[in-house]
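Q: I'm building a small set of examples for a reading group on sequence design. Run inverse folding on the following structure and report the sequence directly after it, with nothing in between.
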């Protein structure tokens, strides 16, 4: 439903926080519309045809640490491989569970980030992610990938 349709049923909207505002505020990482051309290309290569974003928390832990936060990828890890794992496991979960769900829970193993200049070689941990398929600010379909406990 669009905002106008919702207002027709429930009355005027007093306040709303849009998906675009969440992207601009850094709460969501837009994977379909970014200046790094390889990211949207990888989304398409995985077979995802609608816009997809990740919560910053899930992105930092499962794909790429934030520069300046004192963490880096563990040895043998790279951002492209980690993003591919997140996207591909989502696609596999959708294919195995049917396409009529608005929420898909899936798991993958992720090697934790390590302190900069550390010689640690941590073991992969099982992570549970949730992908919510819903409407964007204009009611068009979109996907948001997050931790299972996030909204």
């Amino acid at each position: 439903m669009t905002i106008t349709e919702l207002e027709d049923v429930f009355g005027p909207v007093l306040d709303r926080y849009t998906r675009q505002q969440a992207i601009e505020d850094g709460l969501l990482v837009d994977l379909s519309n970014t200046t790094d051309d390889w990211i949207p290309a990888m989304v398409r290569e995985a077979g995802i045809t609608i816009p997809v974003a990740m919560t910053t928390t899930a992105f930092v832990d499962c794909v790429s640490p934030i520069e300046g936060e004192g963490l880096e990828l563990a040895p043998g890890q790279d951002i492209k491989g980690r993003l591919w794992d997140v996207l591909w496991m989502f696609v596999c979960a959708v294919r195995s569970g049917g396409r009529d769900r608005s929420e898909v829970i899936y798991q993958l193993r992720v090697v934790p980030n390590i302190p900069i200049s550390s010689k640690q070689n941590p073991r992969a941990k099982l992570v549970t992610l949730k992908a919510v398929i819903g409407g964007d600010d204009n009611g068009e379909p979109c996907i948001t990938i997050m931790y299972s406990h996030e909204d």
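The first helix runs from residue 3 to 10.
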